[in-house]
Write a structure and sequence with these properties.
The structure is a single chain. A six-stranded antiparallel β-sheet has the order 4-3-2-1-5-6, with no helix packed on it. It has one helix at 76-81; strands spanning 16-22, 31-37, 41-44, 47-50, 54-60, 63-68. It is mainly beta. The chain has one domain: SH3 type barrels.
């Protein structure tokens, strides 16, 4: 089950998401559902946002969780298998 402590080990596609921080300030505020994920980008309702140097706020149940995009930089299928020491 997805929760705040294990979100990095789960699929992100389908979650509601908002970009709350980014190197490119024009991308801050993009929100919608995550429709696709590649090694370096997340597509939110048709708009690509790089994972690196971005902060994403995803809604899991009633909670909002902020995720540093630097932890997400990897192919989704490899990220799910990766062990993360401290989150």
């Amino acid at each position: 089950m997805r929760n705040a402590s294990n979100i990095l080990r789960h699929e992100l596609i389908g979650l509601k998401c908002r970009v709350v921080g980014a190197k490119n300030k024009g991308q801050v505020g993009i929100e919608g559902k995550i429709v696709d994920e590649t090694m370096k980008t997340i597509m939110i309702d048709g708009r690509k946002v790089p994972k690196k140097c971005s902060v994403f706020r995803v809604k899991i149940g009633a909670k909002n969780v902020d995720i540093d995009g630097n932890y997400l930089v990897a192919r989704p299928e490899d990220r799910i298998k990766k062990k993360i020491k401290k989150w």
